[in-house]
């Protein structure tokens, strides 16, 4: 299989692409996919946490990708294991952990595509991307419209990522995309519950 094909076919021919990629994706390719996912994830987190209020633009541009890549590999390993375990134990899925990791790596392509949006956003909006106050945007209607347009495109790509992810998990486990989406949501819920329990235990120890 031409390894340049999955980057395109994954968008609309998800199940076929995953089916072909499961046995033909080198480990390095998966590492690259996860790393690229992490770069975007790092910038998204910088936006949601408004890091521009605390740090310089240069530090955000270089530091966020590094943190994001580390978090992406943790996310990839943990969520893929949960998706594998929940899918196989609760939904009688067929996929193993390695196949699930491969599917999740390729499913990140729509999310990775947001890198294309980030380049003009850096040039147009600068630090306003990452701050609570947006003095540059406040002085330009044109830039404000572009900012919201980029935000809309970002949302569309994020939604499509979950569509592709659900289809990919469905293909790996031999189930419907709807059930694939359910497995992904249950995996996220499991992580949230564990984090809440850790927080409660930590709080209890500190208060005790």
Automatic annotation (TrEMBL):
It comes from Kroppenstedtia eburnea. It is a multi-pass membrane protein. The lineage of its organism: Bacteria, Bacillati, Bacillota, Bacilli, Bacillales. It holds the Pfam family Yip1. Its main location: membrane. Residues 9-197 form the Yip1 domain. The chain crosses the membrane at residues 28-47, 59-84, 105-125, 145-166, 178-206. GO terms for cellular component: membrane. It is found in: Membrane. This is Yip1 domain-containing protein. Keywords: Membrane, Transmembrane, Transmembrane helix.
């Amino acid at each position: 299989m031409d390894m340049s094909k999955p980057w395109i076919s994954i968008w609309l021919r998800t199940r076929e692409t995953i089916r072909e990629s499961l046995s033909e994706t080198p480990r390095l390719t998966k590492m690259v996919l996860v790393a690229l996912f992490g770069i975007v994830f790092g910038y998204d987190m910088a936006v949601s946490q408004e890091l521009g209020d605390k740090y310089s633009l240069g530090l955000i541009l270089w530091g966020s990708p590094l943190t994001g890549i580390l978090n992406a590999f943790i996310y990839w390993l943990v969520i893929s294991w949960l998706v594998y375990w929940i899918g196989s134990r609760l939904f009688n899925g067929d996929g193993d952990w390695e196949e699930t990791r491969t599917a999740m790596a390729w499913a990140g392509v729509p999310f990775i595509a947001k890198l294309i949006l980030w380049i003009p956003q850096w040039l147009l909006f600068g630090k306003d991307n990452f701050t609570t106050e947006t003095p540059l945007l406040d002085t330009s209607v044109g830039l404000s419209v572009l900012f919201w347009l980029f935000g809309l495109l970002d949302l569309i790509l994020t939604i499509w990522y979950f569509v592709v992810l659900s289809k990919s998990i469905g293909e790996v486990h031999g189930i419907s995309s709807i059930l694939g989406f359910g497995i992904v949501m249950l995996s996220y819920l499991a992580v949230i519950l564990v984090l809440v329990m850790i927080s409660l235990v930590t709080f209890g120890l500190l208060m005790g």
